[in-house]
From TrEMBL:
The keyword DNA repair does not apply. Residues 1-37, 313-337 are annotated as: Disordered. Its EC number is 2.1.1.103. InterPro entries: SAM-dependent_MTases_sf. This is phosphoethanolamine N-methyltransferase. It comes from Lepraria neglecta. The keyword Methyltransferase applies. One of its GO terms (biological process) is methylation. Transmembrane segments: none annotated. Residues 1-21 have a biased composition (Basic and acidic residues).
Length: 337
């Protein structure tokens, strides 16, 4: 096995009784959002735009860009398009009429939107916190050789937690506040415990009744060591991870139902390891990014940090009424009402 970089986590036994929390996340401002959340997140080595910039420079001469032209950097979730085909299946995109409206929280370079628009005829609005990511996303989409992509994919530069519905439209456009589906791939791990609650509430507000919320994320699979928590915070810009029951409870509190929880830790382990080894072989590798890839691979191999695909449905308030009516009828029949 190739030598690991200095980022190797120290061997420690997880403290099963009491978990040590990493140092506190950035201070909150009045609006409840971390003051320097953009800065905190943008420090992550994966978000170094040098690679993206150099690819973009090398394809400037082409009048139109194919998906393959930007594939080396524009997808930041694991398992590339296979993950998006899985997401599309969970949303039922292959069975629904075209032009399903999808909101993508933390859309990066809009790679997800372009794929879902091109293959599944979806209309995708991505919300991206980092301005430069958003600008590159816009450029890649506008230069796409696929008309469906150019017409149906949009990037909005905003923090999903403070976004105003009006930000979602260009001047003169009709505002669709309710989306058929909301997706978020490898973004929610950047949110604090309190901000997650707000995110689930906002995702719920953005969805039509019975709409689907599809998430890919990290979660607290088993008790973590101090070192793992520190690595998560310092290398992955992640200050908090919920356990599976905590995760589900937070989404249920936001009125989501029918949770389908798929643990993909074992599936992701070889993917993140292969990515780290592939990067290590590159002549132009940078120490910070190598450290990032190594740390993620090691965290997953240890198995305390897990990967999850979570599918949820926005509950229909009428369900309660129907349920109550059925219960009432049942009581009447039994003569107990
Ligand atoms: C690991 S990247 C994943 C990008 C994309 N989902 C993908 O699969 O390629 C996570 C993205 O979420 C963005 N992000 C983090 N917090 C956000 C927030 N509050 N609002 C919008 N975007 C956010 C980050 O800037 C980053 O581009």
């Amino acid at each position: 096995m190739a030598a690991r970089s200095e980022a190797k986590l120290a061997d420690q036994t997880p403290d099963q009784k009491e978990e040590v929390r990493p140092s506190p996340p950035p201070q909150k401002n009045e609006g409840g959002r971390e003051d320097d959340s953009t800065e905190f997140i943008s420090k992550m080595a994966l978000y170094d735009l040098e690679r993206a910039d150099s690819v973009i420079k090398s394809i400037q001469h082409k009048p139109e860009w194919t998906a393959a032209d930007t594939a080396s950097f524009d997808c930041m979730h694991y398992d590339g398009n296979a993950a998006l085909d899985h997401c599309a299946r969970m949303l039922g995109l292959d069975q629904e009429p075209p032009h399903q409206r999808i909101l993508d929280i933390g859309s990066g370079f809009s790679g997800t939107g372009r794929y879902l628009a091109s293959k599944y005829k979806a209309v995708v609005t991505g919300i991206e916190l980092q301005k430069r990511f958003h600008e590159l996303a816009k450029e890649i989409t506008s230069r796409s050789d696929d008309e469906r992509v150019r017409a149906n994919v949009r990037s909005v530069n905003a923090d999903f937690l403070t976004l105003d519905a009006k930000d979602l439209v260009e001047p003169g456009e009709i505002l669709h506040v309710e989306f058929d589906h909301v997706v978020s791939l490898l973004c929610i791990m950047h949110f604090s415990k309190e901000d997650r609650v707000r995110l689930f509430k906002r995702a719920h507000e953005s969805l039509k009744i019975n709409g689907t919320f599809y998430i890919e994320d990290f979660y607290h699979r088993k008790p973590m060591t101090d070192d793992e928590r520190t690595a998560l915070r310092d290398v992955v810009s992640c200050t908090y991870l919920p356990t599976a029951p905590e995760y589900i409870t937070d989404t249920m509190d936001a009125e989501f139902v029918d949770a389908i929880w798929e643990d993909v830790t074992v599936q992701w382990q070889p993917i993140v390891r292969a990515r780290a080894e592939e990067y290590r072989r590159r002549k132009d590798k940078k120490a910070e990014l190598e450290r990032f890839y190594d740390t993620v691979a090691e965290l997953f191999e240890r198995g305390n940090v897990g990967g999850v695909r979570l599918t949820l449905r926005k509950r229909d308030p009428e369900e309660d009424k129907e349920k109550q009516e059925l219960e009432f009828e049942g009581r009447m029949k039994n003569g107990s009402g």
